[in-house]
């Protein structure tokens, strides 16, 4: 099902919103709300922590690097250890594991945040970009009380989600899709397709409150 959306640029720059919408540039993006896939990937329990080396200076890690909190003022970048892996402009942090195959599932507690992005990105993605704005990242986001899917700077609304306390993320590398999972049902709410050819990392953007990750989980039964 093709959904017409604006080619919108909506991202956060260390606490500031950068947004440009062009009424003259609209396109159809084929991101089905719910699709069944035949997977050839092998399921495994991915265990990861957040990688402090990648964390923007406005983000602090806690709970043994499984949680991240946003600090509006942040640290002076000059006071943060210089690292080529660190995101320089955007409030983003990666997980510390690279994924090159298989089917993986993790969950994120989101109840203490009103603006965030969850998904995956190529490990070698530019540290000058924000997740969702390029062709090497695939995310689900929440802002202004609405969910959306985003890749290559294209935004598609995701409906019938509400604001759960916790959501799941399902990655099928060979199957070529990322799914947002209702952990109560459980069911796949929405999928984003991608051609994954490079190692991926769990990826998180945060501009309010905190997120807590839960990895090493088995995939719920019944997810296609």
UniProtKB/TrEMBL annotation:
InterPro entries: B30.2/SPRY, B30.2/SPRY_sf, Butyrophylin_SPRY, ConA-like_dom_sf, E3_ligase_FN3/SPRY, SPRY_dom. It comes from the Eukaryota. Pfam families: SPRY. Transmembrane segments: none annotated. Residues 28-222 form the B30.2/SPRY domain. This is SPRY domain containing 4. It comes from Neolamprologus brichardi. The lineage of its organism: Eukaryota, Metazoa, Chordata, Craniata, Vertebrata.
